[in-house]
């Protein structure tokens, strides 16, 4: 297929993880005869004036971009220049922000834990005043999850057991957006990750933590390949489409009686972990999906 793409990754984060992720896509594309070039997000500058918007840096514009970063403004700039970006800038933005994600999922009537977004507090304000603290507790009960809108690896997800613990945590994180959320006790220490590409779940695994309520935070945890049920697949695909993503890693919690409940959607899921666990390379599916989509959209 005669298209060429860019793979954009974050140029500031230390370590090789993001370059590795980009190279993983590069190799998958090469196998299918698709030319791709790697760029760091900071290799490309978003230029704007009253006559044009353009990019500073980079060679002639590509047919598509695989955007593995969260630099939403750069992703939008590429879209404004007419380039098909996978995933779309808006999907990346929603996925990055857990409050925005839960709003979209609720709007689509998809199963999520009961969630209450904290009112915005401006930095430098005095201590938080929650007039409705009683109704939050009545709605969600204890133990309760408190979760920051922006976070990963479980590091910004907390479990509180009393009103005091709850308010201490609120004071600690009050300058950042966060939610109060129902704790799905049946799922404590375990969840499942489903890798969606287009209309399909191409790989899945369960994750268990032996020493933490967060399945992704553990010293002695395990990942296991998993065969999701029809309903789990359906919910994962619907969640991916709801946020407008082409592909995503969808995390599901095990609700009571094994009913799936959506925990989060990762538009930049770590497909290498999935490969290590299941020996399924989601990048191969993603590249095939991209070339089919470019054809269907009349872009190739
Ligand atoms: N409402 C919840 N009830 C039970 N466990 C939860 C809940 N929310 C999150 N968890 C646990 O915490 C982990 C991390 O939460 P998540 O929302 O996925 O944040 P992160 O983006 O940091 O991974 C999940 O994988 C799950 O094991
Ligand atoms: Mg997660």
UniProtKB/TrEMBL annotation:
Keywords: ATP-binding, Ligase, Metal-binding, Nucleotide-binding. GO terms for molecular function: ATP binding; metal ion binding; ribosomal S6-glutamic acid ligase activity. Residues 102-291 form the ATP-grasp domain. GO terms for biological process: SOS response. One of its GO terms (cellular component) is cytoplasm. Gene3D superfamilies: 3.40.50.20, ATP-grasp fold, A domain, ATP-grasp fold, B domain. It comes from the Bacteria. Pfam families: RimK. This is Alpha-L-glutamate ligase.
